[in-house]
Fold this sequence. Notes:
By secondary structure, this protein is an alpha+beta fold. It has one domain: GIY-YIG endonuclease (3-Layer(aba) Sandwich), CATH 3.40.1440. Helices cover 40% and strands 21% of the residues. It has helices at 26-38, 44-47, 62-73, 77-87; strands at residues 5-11, 18-23, 52-59. Strands 2-1-3 form a 3-stranded antiparallel sheet, with helices on both faces. Strand 1 and strand 2 (18-23) form a beta hairpin. One of its GO terms (molecular function) is endonuclease activity. InterPro entries: GIY-YIG_endonuc, GIY-YIG_endonuc_sf, UPF0213_domain. It holds the Pfam family GIY-YIG. This is Putative endonuclease. Belongs to the UPF0213 family.
Amino acid sequence: MQHNYFVYITANKYRTTLYIGFTNNIQNRLSQHYFDSQNAKKSFAGKYACIYLVYYETFEFPKQGIAREKELKGWRREKKNKLISDFNPKWEDLNMQIF
């Protein structure tokens, strides 16, 4: 089974701001966030420099991923923190894991 869709969470350098997104090309999306943070700063992720991947999930079908993204966006910060900590206890940058 191939996983083509991702729900992901990025954070800023100090892990104080989170961005939740959905994509079918996570490498490209992370590159876009980084580029925007260095240049135009037009998107939320770019404006707040949320360029550090701290969490991701894979999905076979887009409908599942979109539903999960909406679910996560509705959570309180404490619940998001626990999700990230369970997956990535040190909140390390996982960008290189997916490249």
